[in-house]
Design brief:
With about 270 residues, the chain is an alpha/beta fold. The protein is elongated, with a radius of gyration of 21 Å. The chain has 2 domains: about 140 residues, Reverse transcriptase/Diguanylate cyclase domain (Alpha-Beta Plaits, 2-Layer Sandwich); about 120 residues, Rossmann fold. The chain has 10 helices and 10 strands.
Length: about 270
């Protein structure tokens, strides 16, 4: 079963994202810059350093919050266009590394609504980008990346508890979701709702297994959705046949929610 403690942590982080989103939307400023800052080896005084650098900049006001885990911070710069936000990011990185040259500081930044509409999904993606960046370069989150995030996922799962967990988790990441508890309803929803990805169990009422996968591939839709199987079936022959019949990924239960997130993103993007 999924880790409910991990879900509770994400609910709390979702509340922070909503707070920032509301702050930006209600701001009288034309633009608001956001920086996500992460360091895996962050010293305890890093937050104080960040605040100290920003407080010395004339005409710069800011709000700052702790991110999703230690070493992660979110900075809001009201009234700052993208060029100004980029400059603040470069200056912040330079000043901090002048006092601690070994600190691996990762920054993802953008400005809204200059680069599009701010949302929970956008902030989650930016925070993860800062954390997973392979280098210490500053990453600018652009309008093109924003457009690639807006995706629909159909969840097909007979177990109501697992189905609800998956829907809550994916919605918190900004995906538009729909659910079905059997194969027949799933096929009807794929035709009428046009999801980008189907996350599905194989053991379903009505139609299941490989005939169900084959039906998805044969539907009269403009774009056949990506298919990620999430199932208790571990038979190697079944896994092999699924991939041969067009399944994009195959995950067995019990599953890691973090791994599931990453594999869904990989399939969609």
């Amino acid at each position: 079963m999924p880790n409910m403690a991990a879900l509770q942590t994400e609910v709390q982080q979702s509340s922070l994202y909503l707070t920032i989103e509301q702050y930006v939307k209600e701001s009288p400023q034309e633009a608001s810059g956001i920086l996500f800052i992460y360091s895996a080896n962050a010293p305890s005084y890093l937050e104080t350093q960040i605040r100290g650098v920003l407080e010395t900049q004339p005409g710069v006001s800011f709000e700052m919050w702790n991110g999703n885990e230690p070493g992660s911070y979110i900075v809001l710069l009201p009234g700052q266009q993208l060029d100004a936000v980029h400059f603040q990011g470069l200056l912040l990185k330079q000043r901090i590394q002048e006092t601690n040259g070994e600190l691996d500081l990762h920054i993802t930044l953008s400005s809204f609504p200059e680069q599009g509409e701010l949302s929970e999904q956008v902030m989650k993606q930016m925070e993860e980008s800062a954390k997973l960046s392979p280098s210490g370069d500053i990453h600018i989150f652009t309008r093109q990346e924003l457009r690639s995030l807006q995706s629909r996922i159909l969840i097909v799962e007979g177990d109501a508890t697992v189905r609800e967990f998956l829907q809550i988790r994916l919605q918190m990441q900004g995906y538009e979701t729909a659910v079905a508890d059997n194969g027949i309803s799933a096929l009807e929803l794929i035709e009428s709702w046009n999801p980008d990805l189907v996350l599905t169990e194989l053991n379903l009422y009505g139609i299941d297994g490989l005939p169900y996968i084959h039906h998805i591939q044969q539907l009269n839709v403009k774009n056949v959705p990506k298919i990620v199987v999430l199932t208790e079936q571990r038979v190697e022959q079944t896994i092999s046949l699924c991939f041969q019949n067009g399944v994009d990924d195959y995950i067995t239960k019990p599953f890691s929610p973090v791994e599931l997130d990453a594999r869904i993103r990989r399939c969609i993007h």
